[in-house]
Design brief:
It is elongated, with a radius of gyration of 28 Å. The protein has 8 helices and 9 strands. It has 2 domains: 170 residues, no CATH class; 105 residues, no CATH class. By secondary structure, the protein is of the alpha+beta class. A hairpin with a 5-residue loop joins β4 and β5. Strands 1, 2, 4, 5, 6, 7 and 8 form a 7-stranded antiparallel β-sheet that branches.
């Protein structure tokens, strides 16, 4: 006697989903500049995505037709198995320079690795499957060439569903956006280069380019200024990523590297500003 096919209620946490017809996919991608948080905050993102996939699986499973008594028992089980796999949550964590890769539940992974060695975290269901209509993927990366730390893609046949899920995930991610996140924006990086290199290039131009210099010296100076400008454009983003890491998972009680480095830079700038003032005050007092 053959056993009855597995139902969504019986499948428990092993959820999945299957699409029986072609649907138009609505995509809702977005990015977040910076994410800095604890292990619990990162696990909360995993739990949220898992719950979204669970609800999507149950919705699609409820629309499946009743088992066909004329089909072999294994065919019905295969359908439910595809459904579960389509919505199963996959989590991948890689170390810096791809030294190691861990897969599984974040709770176990984060307790077994050094948090400062984490380079990327990717979680979501399988993208390349014909059985699931909905897809959610959240990708954290500390060394992206762009200024974004987190990329999120939500897709499904329902625009309202995709927008609602994307907004909910974005709201949670923004809870761990540090106060200095705007310093990693493209506009801030461009403004910093202009403010620092602009006056320097003008000073160099006035020093090395003038009526009393021959044309060869002038052209050499202009070429040097242009080369330095290009170098700053190439090195600047990498320097910004080093000073202000886009993605950090912090041990309990520790301050982010970005916050520490901003404090150090602020102290140095303050010292450079205060020192001449103090020297002038001392000189006036002595005289």
């Amino acid at each position: 006697m053959s056993s009855s096919p597995e139902t969504p209620e019986q499948s428990g946490a092993d959820f999945a989903r299957i699409a029986d017809s072609h649907t138009v996919t609505q995509k809702r991608p977005f990015k977040v500049h910076t994410w800095v948080g604890s292990k619990d905050a990162l696990i909360a993102v995993q739990d949220q995505v898992e719950e979204v996939l669970r609800a999507a699986y149950e919705q699609q499973a409820a629309g499946l037709p009743e088992p066909d008594p004329d089909l072999p028992d294994f065919a019905s089980k295969y359908r439910w198995e595809n459904l579960r796999n389509a919505y199963r949550l996959y989590v991948t964590v890689t170390g810096k320079h791809s030294r190691w890769t861990e897969q599984g539940d974040l709770r176990k992974i984060l307790n077994s690795v050094h948090l400062d060695e984490i380079a990327t975290v990717t979680l979501g269901n399988a993208r390349s499957t014909p059985h699931g209509e909905h897809h959610v993927e959240v990708s954290f990366e500390s060394a992206k060439p762009s200024f974004q730390a987190v990329s999120v893609t939500v897709s499904g046949p329902d625009q309202v569903w995709a927008s609602g899920v994307a907004d909910a995930i974005r709201e949670r991610l923004l809870k761990n956006r540090p106060a200095w996140w705007w310093l990693r924006s493209v506009f801030t990086g461009f403004l910093a280069v202009v403010m620092i290199w602009g006056p320097m290039s003008v000073a160099l131009s006035r020093t090395f380019i003038g009526d009393e210099l021959d044309w060869a010296t002038e052209w050499s100076a202009m070429a040097a200024i242009l080369a330095i400008s290009l170098l700053l454009g190439l090195v600047g983003p990498g320097l910004m990523r080093f000073v202000l890491p886009a993605f950090e998972v912090l041990p309990p009680g520790e301050r982010s590297l970005g916050g520490q480095r901003i404090g150090a830079i602020a102290s140095l700038v303050g010292l450079l500003i205060v020192s001449p003032v103090l020297s002038a005050v001392v000189a006036i007092y002595i005289n």
